[in-house]
Amino acid sequence: MAFLLELAALACLSWWGFAVGDEAVRILLGVGTPLLAVVLWSLFAAPKARLRPRLPLVLAVKAVVLGGGAAALYGVRHPVAAVAMAVIVVANTAVAEIFRRRPPTSRTGQASTAGSPASG
Q1: At what angle do helices 23-40 and 2-19 cross, to 10 degrees?
Q2: Is residue 119 part of a domain?
Q3: Is 27 inside a domain boundary?
Q4: Which range marks the domain in which residue 16 is found?
Q5: What are the residues facing 105 on neighbouring strands?
Q6: Is 118 a member of any domain?
Q7: Are 37 and 9 contacting, i.e. CB atoms less than 8 angstroms apart?
Q8: What is the average per-residue pLDDT within 3-31?
Q9: 55-69: per-residue pLDDT in tens?
Q10: Is 13 a residue whose pLDDT tops 80?
Q11: Gap between the Cα atoms of 35 and 87, Å rounded
Q12: Is 110 inside any structural domain?
C-alpha cells in the first residue's frame, strides 16, 4: 500500500506541475517537482535510504512528499480526492510505524523466548 501511495503522490505532483503557469513553467514543475520528491525520498525516507536520519526527519520527508501529493490534488481542484488521499496517507503511515516498533512474536501470539534459559 505504501508503495502505491508513493507512486500516486509522484503522479499527483507531476499532474499539478503540468497544470500551472505558462509552458516553460509547466514543463519545469511537471518534471522537476516529482524528481525533487524522488531525490528527497531516496535520500531520507526509502527503506534503503542513503542517509538514515532519526524518525522525526523521516516522517517530515514523508509528510512533504506524500502530503505534497494530496496538496497537489487540491491544487488541481479535486478537494475530495485530496482529503481522501491525506487520510489514507496518515492512516498508512501510522499503522506502518506501529507495526515497525512491535517486538517479534511467535505463532501463538506471545513474545519469542528463544535463547532464554526457560526455553527448552
Answers
A1: 160
A2: no
A3: yes
A4: 2-101
A5: 111
A6: no
A7: yes
A8: 95
A9: 999 999 999 999 999
A10: yes
A11: 24
A12: no
Q: How many CB atoms lie within 10 A of CB 115?
A: 6
Residue for grid cell 500516486: 8
Amino acid at 18: F
Read off the C-alpha cell for 59: 516522517
Q: What is the pLDDT of residues 66-82, one digit of tens each?
A: 999 999 999 999 999 99
Kindly state the average pLDDT of the residues 27-44.
97
Q: Which residue has the cell 519469542?
A: 112
Which pLDDT belongs to residue 101?
Answer: 75
Cell reading at 58: 523521516
Look up residue 13 and give its amino acid.
L
Domains: count for the chain: 1
C-alpha cell at 53: 536520519
Number of residues that this document lists for the chain: 120
Q: Is residue 17 a contact partner of residue 30, using CB atoms and an 8 Å limit? A: yes
* Residue 48: how many other CB atoms lie within 10 Å: 6
Stated pTM of the model: 0.81
